[in-house]
Write a structure and sequence with these properties.
Elements: E1 4-7, H1 9-13, H2 23-35, E2 40-45, H3 58-64, E3 72-76, H4 80-88, E4 93-99, H5 102-109, H6 113-129, E5 133-139, H7 152-165, E6 169-174, H8 181-194, E7 200-204, H9 211-220, E8 225-228, H10 248-257, H11 266-280, H12 287-294
Parallel strand pairs: 1-2, 1-8, 2-3, 3-4, 4-5, 5-6, 6-7, 7-8
The structure holds 3-hydroxy-3-methylglutaryl-coenzyme A and magnesium ion.
Family: Belongs to the HMG-CoA lyase family.
Protein name: Hydroxymethylglutaryl-CoA lyase
GO biological process, one term: ketone body biosynthetic process
Length: 295
């Protein structure tokens, strides 16, 4: 059975690094990830560079990477200004993002949930008119750093609004890595009922070590698309304490062992992980990368 992996390391990972990574290293990383067989790579963000200085070089990164038909590169877009930048960069896919909890939405994109819908609807309309694919993210589905528990109905509502805007897939985010498999099963089962499992993805941060277990629970509910990040890089600067996404190396290792098809060459992926670890000059959380480098 096929599993789609959306590599978010160059965006979700690098947006949170204290050290600035050079544009050239970002370009090399993105090309190595594609060479390893990842078909979907989220390369950067077209957000306000004052909010996320780490990704202020979005245009230059997209200019430098190798564009090939087999790989879809995408970027986060929060508003029409971001959409304009994405269009000028020649992207074929953009990702909208918002939260299921009011306070995180406000801290992350400076708007209430109600005020975000019309902005994203306009962005989606424009992207679709240009022939782009539009992905959607819902953050804080499994818990909010400011509000704690988030009612499932809040996540359902935001998911359904995004689907109505025309997004092809909604990625459900455990932004601060608090979910456990039982909760993942409950939440995913409810949200799947509103749509179909092929229009949903799991986006798990591994703050408390439950990330891969949460993937297994989501697989049980029919989800076949997962976001992960090379080396386990990542976090959200507007979610205090959020750690990295599940590592792509760990995810691929587990799925290969379970005879799922990922299309990813683990050895080439490990080269990409070793490369970005070397660039950052610190040990990354990926367990499979650690084991590989120790062997
Ligand atoms: P704002 O300050 O309210 O925006 O930010 P504004 O419309 O008032 O504009 C203020 C200034 O920003 C203006 O410039 C705009 O031109 C500029 P000035 O006139 O002052 O010189 N501006 C922009 N510049 C470039 N590109 C843009 C852009 N937009 C405005 N797109 C905004 C609102 C949404 C832009 C801001 O809050 C922002 O950039 N937020 C992004 C935060 C972010 O990237 N967070 C991390 C990603 S989400 C995440 O990690 C979660 C996820 O992984 C899933 C999960 O884990 O749950 C996806
Ligand atoms: Mg994230």
């Amino acid at each position: 059975m096929k599993i789609q992996i959306v590599e978010v390391g160059p965006r979700d990972g690098l947006q949170n690094e204290k050290e600035m990574v050079s544009t050239s290293a970002k370009i090399q990383l993105i090309d190595k990830l594609a060479a390893a067989g990842l078909k979907r790579v989220e390369a950067t963000s077209f957000v306000n560079p004052r909010w996320i200085p780490q990704l202020a070089d979005a245009e230059d990164v997209l200019k430098g990477i190798e564009r090939q038909n087999k790989v879809t590169h995408s970027a986060l877009v929060p508003n029409l200004r971001g959409m304009e930048r994405a269009r000028e960069s020649g992207l074929t896919e953009v990702a909208l993002f918002m939260s299921a909890s009011e306070t995180h939405n406000l801290k992350n994109i400076n708007k209430s949930i109600e005020d975000t819908f019309p902005v994203l609807r306009q962005v989606a309309r424009e992207a679709l008119a240009l022939g782009m694919r539009v992905r959607g993210y819902v953050s804080t589905v499994f818990g909010c750093p400011y509000e704690g528990n988030v009612p499932i109905d809040n996540s359902r509502r935001v998911t359904n609004e995004l689907l109505e805007m025309g997004v092809f897939e909604v990625s459900l985010g455990d932004t601060i890595g608090v979910a456990t498999p039982k909760q993942v099963r409950e939440v995913m089962e409810k949200i799947v009922k509103d749509t179909t499992s092929d229009r949903l993805a799991g986006h798990f941060h591994d703050t408390r070590g439950t990330g891969l277990a949460n993937v297994l629970a989501a697989l049980d509910t029919g989800i076949r698309t997962f976001d992960s990040s090379i080396g386990g890089l990542g976090g959200c600067p507007y979610a205090p304490g959020a750690a990295g996404n599940i590592s792509t190396e760990d995810l691929v290792y587990m799925l290969n062992g379970m005879e799922y098809e990922t299309g990813v060459d683990l050895n080439l992926l490990l080269d990409a992980g070793a490369f970005i670890q070397q660039e950052l000059g610190r040990e990354l959380p990926s367990k499979v990368l650690k084991a590989h480098l120790a062997a």
